[in-house]
Amino acid sequence: MNIQDHMAEFYSVDLKGKIPGNGDVEFLEAVLPGPPYQYMPFATVHYTVGCVTPETNRLDLDKGVFLDEQGKPYYPFLQRSAPEIVRFIGKQRQERGVSIY
What we know:
alpha+beta, 1 helix, 5 strands, globular
């Protein structure tokens, strides 16, 4: 058995300029699993805080909540932005013809 038989492909959804930031946080992209794992309800969202090194946070697409960084001062803003990001990702997946469920 070849290990590559079990490796998933990933694809990204551009969020830069599509999801409003708050002056400190700028959303860059969301990375999602492709076939055969496209049904997993998670994305990794990349963003910058204060124009420094990009950070990542896991987003639960079913619940519409970020899973990491609860102690950070910008976490409430991330949570408020989560539903809009989930909607945008859903539209992008439909346009690509990616079955969600």
